[in-house]
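Q: I'm building a small set of examples for a reading group on sequence design. Run inverse folding on the following structure and report the sequence directly after it, with nothing in between.
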């Protein structure tokens, strides 16, 4: 997909984003082609990552298990 195609996408910020609003990840779920998009809200014209729904679910499961915890 081209970046212009993301203009009508319904983005939402992560519930874990910092309160001051500068460290935000935004995601959007697309029914067709069945994928999840992610971007940095500080750079909305910048790169957009796309994941299949299976990849996104696998990532979220790993996050919930603490697989990426720094401590």
């Amino acid at each position: 997909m081209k970046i212009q195609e993301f203009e009508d996408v319904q983005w939402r910020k992560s519930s874990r984003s910092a309160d001051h609003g500068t460290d935000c990840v935004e995601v959007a779920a697309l029914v067709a082609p069945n994928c999840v998009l992610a971007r940095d809200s500080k750079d909305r014209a910048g790169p957009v990552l796309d994941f299949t729904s299976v990849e996104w679910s696998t990532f979220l499961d790993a996050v919930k298990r603490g697989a990426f915890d720094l401590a």
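The chain has one domain: 8-14+23-65.
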